[in-house]
Structure formats: C-alpha cells, structure tokens
Design brief:
It is a single chain. The protein has 202 residues and is α/β, with parallel strands linked by helices. The protein has a single domain, classed as Vaccinia Virus protein VP39 (Rossmann fold). The protein contains eight helices and seven strands, in the order αααβαβαββαβααββ. It has a seven-stranded mixed beta sheet with strand order 3-2-1-4-5-7-6, sandwiched between helices. The protein is globular and about 45 Å long. The structure holds S-adenosylmethionine.
C-alpha cells in the first residue's frame, strides 16, 4: 500500500504543477483528438471511459460520438487536472471521477470502449492496469492508446533517446496487451500521431 500511495503522490505532484496551463501548452491538439476518437468507431448510445482524462480534452469529441443517450466518464487521479476540466466546462460532456485506473468504480463489462491519451507511460503496473481496463469493457469492446505526438518526436522534445524497453514500442506493447486481455488490431507511430487500437478478448 505504501508503494501505491508513493506512486500516486508522484503522479499527482507532477500533473498538479502542470494542470493550470495544460491546455494552453498544446492549443492545436483538438483535431488530433477528434480524429483519434473517430477510430474507436463509437455509436450513438455507447458507453465510453476516458482513462486518465486530465483536463478532459477528449470529452467533447467522445460526447459528440455517443450523443446525448450515450455515457461518457472521465477518470483521473489528479484533482488539479479534474478541477481544470471543470473550469474548461468539460464536465458538461462527461461525468468526472477522481479515480485510479488500477481500481475503477465501474461494473465489469459495463463499457463499450476506453480511450486513454498519454496515460500508459505513467502507470507503475501497466499490465495490471490494462487488465483493469479490460475488466470494465464488454468482450469485443475497444481500447485506444493515443498520444498526439509520436514516440520519436516526443523523445526529441524531451531531449532523450527512445530505448528498446519503451513500453509503447510495438514489439513490447503487443505482448503486453495480449497478456492483459486485449488483442492489438492496429498500431501507428508517426510524428503527428501515436495510436494503438485493441479489442477486448473473450
Ligand atoms: C499526460 S496526462 C494526459 C491527460 C489527458 N488524457 C490529455 O490527453 O490531455 C496523463 C494523465 O493521466 C493521469 N493519471 C496517471 N496515472 C493515473 C492513474 N493510475 N489513474 C488515473 N489517472 C492517472 C494523470 O493524473 C494525468 O492527468
């Protein structure tokens, strides 16, 4: 438990310091989020979770995809990010939950899809956490792991090199997803998009 709470403190401190100007740092990402959400193939009335929703940048396109009869939930561990989401009015597009993706307050199989932007690199136990995401999705439901910048461009922006153990490398991500209840169906890693799609295995 102590390890868990240390993980949380680190993530919360990191993102709390960035919450207030998160959206203004990346003002042109909107269309990339809309295009990524479109790849989930959501239908009117579907139920979707934005895991690690942050300031809720994906919530408007998710709501547009499922319509008024659908369910949109945004879950995040960092109160300051959720507060920024409320200030931006994104709570109009989805219900916001202060929650850890390691233990979601969501019934098994309740959802049609999970969208997760910029999340997995921050997870201390990715296999376990991806399994929890699989738990809340119905068989055949879909997962999108998205980032509006590819791995190489992100590494360059952060002044580091990509190492072979990078979780999001296709050769690492495919088996990780397979071991966590997902089957990867597509993988794109180019400068303007990282997007891995997976289907919940039976
Ligand atoms: C890089 S930000 C991305 C935010 C948002 N998805 C976006 O694309 O703008 C990662 C977010 O994941 C959240 N996060 C990290 N670990 C989490 C966890 N275990 N459970 C829920 N949220 C988590 C952080 O608080 C942060 O808001």
């Amino acid at each position: 438990m102590r390890y868990m709470s240390d993980d949380h403190t680190h993530v919360q401190e990191f993102f709390a310091a960035r919450a207030a100007d998160w959206d203004s740092r990346f003002p042109d990402d909107g269309p990339a989020y809309t295009a990524a959400v479109a790849e989930l193939g959501l239908r009117e009335g579907d139920r979707v979770l934005d895991a690690g929703c942050g300031t809720g940048r994906a919530l408007p396109p998710l709501r547009a995809a499922v319509g008024a009869s659908g369910v949109v939930v945004g879950a995040d561990l960092t109160p300051a990010m959720l507060q920024a989401a409320v200030r931006a009015g994104r709570d109009r597009d989805g219900r916001l939950l202060l929650a850890d993706v390691a233990a979601l307050p969501v019934r098994s199989g309740a959802l049609d899809a999970v969208f997760a932007a910029g999340l997995i690199a921050h997870l201390p136990r990715p296999a376990e956490n991806l399994r929890e995401l699989a738990r809340v999705v119905r068989p055949g439901g879909v997962l999108a792991l998205f980032h509006p910048i590819g791995r190489a461009a992100l590494a360059a922006r952060q002044g580091r090199q990509i190492t072979p153990d990078d979780l999001r490398a296709e050769s690492n991500l495919r088996p990780l997803l397979a071991a966590s209840g997902w089957r990867m169906t597509s993988y794109v890693d180019r400068d303007d998009r990282f997007l891995a799609l997976a289907v919940r295995a039976d």
